[in-house]
Amino acid sequence: MRLFESIVDANHKAVAGDASAGLHPDEFADAFPIIALTCIDPRLNAFFPNILGVPADQFIWLRNAGNIITGPLSSTMRSLALACAVKGGKEIAVIGHTDCQVARTTAMELLSRFQSLGVDRSRLPENLNEFFGVFASERQNVMKACDFVRQSPLIGPNIPVHGLLADIETGKLDWIVNGYEKLVQAQAPSQPQQQTAAGALTPLSGFGSLKDFEMGEMKFPAAKIGEWVSAKVEGLKMAGEEEIQKAQPVVESAEAAAKQAADYAKQQWGQASQGVPPKIPRPPPIRPARLVRKR
Ligand SMILES: [Zn+2]
């Protein structure tokens, strides 16, 4: 079993009452750290990373209202990309939860809540559902988020993207998307976009796929990285096709640029993507039932 399969397996055993159930993180050292996107619901505060059974120092936790991703280049998406490129995240999990208030709140209710907060209708976008990414089904919301992450040009093709749903009452985790299986499916068909020495135009087409995305908007934590990427991008814009063929090294895509930025960070500070400590302490067994809180 791979990491998240073991996580779900141990979680199910623990929920079923097996007091000895727990993950053995030392068996999965190569798969850490992991990245999770969850909802802001405070009831989840005590859940993570406990119900996953992973060590806290190998758990990169992103949260937003409803664990929503609005697009392949959205703000949350950029944080996920940097969690991989700068913090060395190896696998991504979008983890929704049952009884999510974002799913329970209708557009009309949302309007009246804003109204009571002094935010007038005229100041809000016309389509509230679309703007906030409000959803009706927690499962579909997680599936949609996983699709966005997998399609994002900012995420490497070898990063598994999982979708899970946590039961807010019991802490039980249910599979929605098994990222390992999707990874295999994605790799199965022929890959015409693979980089080759002859594919000299790939750099331009790679950036073309980003459409409205402005690389200059990406705020890397260190100015040096931003300058470095900007210089690379500027070089690509300026260069004609022949120039690009000669350019060394070529920035094939935003993904490659992010990877090179991470390598650069690693060289500069020697901390990014350093992998895991040699010995991971084994966390106590998962006991989700103890974490249940009354609303
Ligand atoms: Zn929620």
Radius of gyration: 21 Å
Global geometry: globular
- How many domains, in number, for the residues? 2
Find the count of extended strands (DSSP E, 2+ residues). 5
Number of helices: 11
Bound molecules: zinc ion
CATH class of the largest domain: Alpha Beta
Give helix % range: 25-40%
* Category from helices, strands and their pairing: alpha/beta
Order of helices and strands: HEEHEHHHHEEHHHHH
CATH superfamily of the largest domain: Carbonic anhydrase
Strand content: 5-15%
Query: What is the CATH architecture term of the largest domain?
Result: 3-Layer(aba) Sandwich
Strand arrangement, major sheet: 2-1-3-4-5
Span between N and C termini?
A: 35 Å
* Poorly predicted regions: 193-209, 211-225, 239-251, 270-285, 289-294
Q: Could you provide a short overview of the structure?
A:
This protein is an alpha/beta fold and 295 residues long.
Overall description:
By secondary structure, the chain is an alpha/beta fold. The chain contains eleven helices and five strands, in the order H-E-E-H-E-H-H-H-H-E-E-H-H-H-H-H. A hairpin with a 6-residue loop joins strand 4 and strand 5. Helix 9 runs antiparallel to helix 11. The longest helix is centred in the C-terminal third of the chain and has 16 residues. It is globular. The protein starts with a helix and ends in a 26-residue tail after the last helix. The C terminus is likely disordered. The structure holds zinc ion. The site of zinc ion has 7 residues, from helix 3. Zinc ion binds next to helix 3.
